[in-house]
Amino acid sequence: MSAPTREIILGVGGGIAAYKACDLLRRLQDSDFAVTVVPTPSSLNFVGKATWEALSGRKVTSEVWEDVELVRHISLAKDAQAIIIAPATADLIARVAAGRADDLLTNLILASTVPILIVPAMHTAMWENSATQSNVVTLRNRGIDVMEPADGALTSGDIGKGRFPDTATIIERFTSTTLRAKDLTGKKVLVSAGGTREPIDPVRFIGNRSTGIQGIAIAEKARERGADITLVLANSDLPTHPEIKRIDVQSVAELSNELSKEFSHCDFLFMTAAVSDVRPSQVSAEKIKKDNLDQLAFVQNQDVIATLTANKLQQCVIAFAAETGENNLAEAQAKMIRKGADLIYLNNVSDGAIFGSAYTSGSIIDKSGILQSFTNITKESLADSLINHAIIQRNKLG
C-alpha cells in the first residue's frame, strides 16, 4: 500500500454509533488517508481515547484546553484536507449549525475551510424534528455535505430512518462527492425540469406526473461543483437554491422559448423535463361544458431537444427517456440520435414509478451502449453520476 498522502480529520459525536466509526477509520486508512481522530467529550463515553490512539497511531484530544501550546484547533485545521463527522448527533449538528465552539471539534470546524462530510445517526423522531431538519438545511446551504441516515433497526428497538450508514456507503460519498474538486467552475449548465401543461380551457390542461425532483437535483449538484446554473422549471412548487437562476414556465412553447435563449451560452444541457407530445388544436377561452368534452382534436408539439440541437456547437446534451416495460436499449439509442443528444438516461416508469419519488432506477446510455446502470438509487446520486459522464463526453467533444 502506498504511503498516505491525504490528511483528514475524523470527528466523532456522542452517539452509540461511535463504535462503528472504528471500522470507518480503518477503511479510510486502507484507502490511503492519514486520519486524526477528534472525538467530542461526550463520545468518549462510548469509545475511549486509548482505542482511537491505538487505531489511528496518533494522539487524540477532545478539548481546546489539552496541549494548549500546540493550538490544535488551528494546526489541525491547517493540515487537514477534509473533515468527516461520523456519527453526528442532533446536538452536534445543532452546535455546528449555530457556529458554536465549545470543544476541540467545533473549534476546528470553525477554523477550517476544507470540505466537510456530516454523517447523522440518531432516532427517527430526532432526525425528523423540524429543528434538526432546519439545521441540516442551514449546513447544506453553507456547502457542507450532509448525508441522509440509513433506514433500519435503531438502538431503541424502533425501526426507521436514523441508522449510521454502512462504511462503504460513507467512503463512496466522501470520495465521490465531498472531496470532488469544483470541476464545473466556469461552466454554464442549463437544466430543464418538471412537467409541461397544455391548456384545454381556462381550468383544464393536458399534463403529466413529473415533479422536477430529478432536474432540481442535477441543478443543485452542478452548483455544488462550481457551475453557473440556469434551471427552466415547468409547473413545480419545489424550492431551489438562491444561487440557481430559476425560470418558471408552463407550456411546451414557453419551455422551448426560454431554453432557446440560454442554449447557445451553455456547456451542458440536461433535458429532464417531461414534455407534452401534443396540445389541443384549439384552446377555448371559456370553460368547456362536460357534454362537449367527448372529443378533442390535438396537434403535435415541436421536438424541443431536436430544435435546440439543430444549432448545437460544442454543448453536451443529455436527454431523458421515461418508458414503461423493460428498458429497450435500441429504442433509447435511436431516440438519442434522433434528438441529437450525446447521452440519454433511460428509466422505467411502470405503475407510476419514479415520478414524485426520491429514488430512481435506469441506465445511462451512449452510442456504444449502456455506460452505467442503477437500481433504486437516490436522484441526488444519479445527478452526480450523470454529471460525471457528461463531463467525460464534453471533453471528447473538444
CATH class of the largest domain: Alpha Beta
Number of helices: 13
- Taken from the alpha-carbon principal axes, the silhouette is elongated
Mean pLDDT: 89
Total number of distinct structural domains:
2
Low-confidence stretches: none
Question: Which structural class do you get from the secondary structure elements?
Answer: alpha/beta
Describe this structure in words.
- The protein is of the alpha/beta class and 398 residues long.
- The protein folds into 2 domains: 173 residues, Rossmann fold, CATH 3.40.50.1950; 210 residues, CoaB-like (Rossmann fold, 3-Layer(aba) Sandwich).
- Helices cover 33% and strands 26% of the residues.
- It contains 13 helices and 19 strands.
- The strands form 5 sheets. It has an 8-stranded mixed beta sheet, with helices on both faces.
- Strand 9 and strand 10 form a beta hairpin.
Walk me through the topology:
Elements: E1 6-12, H1 20-30, E2 33-39, H2 49-56, H3 72-79, E3 82-88, H4 90-98, H5 104-111, E4 116-120, H6 124-128, H7 130-141, E5 145-146, E6 150-153, E7 159-163, H8 167-178, E8 188-194, E9 198-199, E10 205-206, H9 213-224, E11 228-234, E12 245-249, H10 252-263, E13 268-271, E14 278-280, E15 298-300, H11 304-309, E16 316-323, H12 329-339, E17 343-348, E18 359-366, E19 369-378, H13 379-397
Parallel strand pairs: 1-2, 1-3, 3-4, 4-5, 8-11, 8-13, 11-12, 13-16, 16-17
Antiparallel strand pairs: 6-7, 9-10, 14-15, 17-18, 18-19
Helix pairs in contact: 1-2, 1-8, 3-5, 4-7, 9-13
